[in-house]
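Recap for those who missed Tuesday's class. We walked through two folding examples back to back. For each one, the amino acid string is listed first and its predicted structure tokens come directly after. Nothing is annotated here on purpose, so try labeling regions yourself before you check the end of the notes.
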Amino acid sequence: MIGTSLSGVTFVSVPGTVGNMVNGGYGAFGYFQVILGYIIGYMVIAFVLIPLYYKLNLTSIYHYLEIRLSRESYKTGALFFIISRLFGATARLYLVINVLQIFILDQMGIPFVLTTAIILAMILLYTWKGGVKTIVYTDTLQTSFMLLGLVICLVYILSEMNIGMVDAFQRMSDHQYLHIFDTNVLNKSFFLKNIIGGAVIAITMTGMDQEMMQKNISVKRMQDSQKNILTFTGTLVIVNLLFLVLGGLLYLYMIDKGAIYENKSFLFENKNIIGDDLFPSVALFHLPPALGIIFIIALISALFPSADGALTALTSSFCIDILGIHRRKELTEEQQKRTRMSVHLSFAVVFLLCILLFKWIDNKSIIGVILDLAGYTYGPLLGLFAFGILTKRVINKGYGVTIICLAAPACSYLLGKNAASIFNGYQIGFEMLLINGIMTFIGLWIYSKKAN
């Protein structure tokens, strides 16, 4: 679960956020506001959602929507999971592939498309036969290498700068890197927005995500599943905090080497190094070759755990929730297997197309893109589950549910684009997911009726 949650985005993008807009807006240790929200969200998962899933003995968590609301709600929920996980997983995969491409493979003349195709083929090879069991073992090994790379880089940079952690924190404080809470209510990074947004993101991207929850609901006892979530929460907080510390150390290291901070950018050797470019630039060009190799190993180790699990979960969800192959008794076991393999291969092709789309967009802070996308794609899931849990109303038959779940993100997008002009400079941040969920909830309320 740690490997799936962190991915290359945490490894590259979180350290880079420390130097972004230090004197206002989202930067410094401001991302820790979101992590504090995660803690709240994971508590909701452990003590509200997991007991619900175990009580109903679910294989796919979206079956809850069928049991409680309607078959159309179930199909719609599964569809939004597929869309959400597809874009989230490919954005994470793109970040790591792009780093490898820019800093290593471009010099070798290998095109980006070929790099992406080879990596996807590697993922296909070991998920094709082994399935979830293979993923559990490989993800554990890969995540261990990623975290080992993090610790080695931290220790080396402290040693190279000849300072201890106390002195490092003092220097980070002098540069305002330890600043966490943004108290300007108009900013996207206002602390309440980030904490609430982080809580809702955790609830939806973990508790309402089939890929993440299938790891928990497969545990035999509910109490052990809850322990898993609580242990995961503590570990995730510590690891993210270490990545933020690493980001602060990397910026201090650059300053010691002559980098200049101006116009919200770090200029070093006539290059603008900020955001996602920070860690790769320092690791590959300014640290010893051995550290560069460790960085590459850790980065590749961060790549696979989020991608392989997503590909398998998308295949599983599409076959079970959308195609319903387990309910079609006319299909033989061999025919079901062929269908699963065809869907698996098709999603690999879709992954390739989505990664090329992110390459075309070329954003410098992919973690912001992922969280923004989550606000639109996970909002309907939040609305559906909240409506089922918090009300006793009955949904009318038909695909009005689907229309509502498509309309809510569209209305949220328009609101987000015009919020500053409508609300006197107020910018919508991570609370977009909550707004989207509330719009979905209101639409479902209108479309429903009182239960007998």
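Example two. Treat it independently of the first, because the proteins are unrelated.
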Amino acid sequence: MTTLLWIILATLVSGVLSVLAAGVFLALPTRAREAALPHLVSFATGALLGAALLALIPHAVQGAGLENVHEVGIALIAGIALFFILEKFLLWRHCHDDHCSEHPLGEREMHGHDHHDHGNAHDHARKKASGSLVLVGDALHNVLDGVLIAAAFLTDVHLGIVTALAIMAHEIPQEVGNFAVLLHSGVSRRRALLLNLLTSLTAVLGGVIGFFALEKALMALPFALAVAAASLLYVAVADLIPGLHRKIDPRSSVTQVVLIGLGIALIAFAERHAH
């Protein structure tokens, strides 16, 4: 096979298989899935933090070189600002659809709304926004994975295959986290699977881009990695962690800490064995 065909096949198989492996969760009965969902949100928090801080940012710094660490930091800050603005837009759109915009006290009383109603609607909008944000971040991450796979195949076919397998192993725990975020945001199981499959196909796009414009892609890669890391950090810190703090009983708190640690540990394990 030609190198381009190897790249397309590897990115397609790696992306689709990682999503399908993570999608086993969707086969659980409704009661078991609802019981497991809060735990998966905790796991998702750890997986997103681990992917950003243990994989994406170190790779960004390594790729840019120590002399460009400051620029990587700027890209990270710019990414956080970008996703803050994006979430503002998504919140505005969903709040407009759900009629959850804030009103003065007198106006709330006039229309028969209370603070609790608007708080619930705003929380619902934030859940929707977090699902949209994680899809954007995952699509960008998959594009970059495709570029990395292309770079490996252009070096050596065997290295490309090993890299694709390592990336697939790295993606499975993160895709489980993505499913948890999407289900937490109110997306149905079937739609969550479809959306994750579609975002996984962006790895093929990244592979093709990497093949035809490798030098330019690799020059921009460290800074794009920083932006991808920013998206994962933002979802974990701004959207998921505040929800975890709503359960403050000792048992739930200990479970959350353990599952966050497990999510981080699995990403660290996958990242270590990818090298």
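Answers for example two:
Residues 22 and 176 are 5 Å apart (CA to CA).
The chain has a mean pLDDT of 78.
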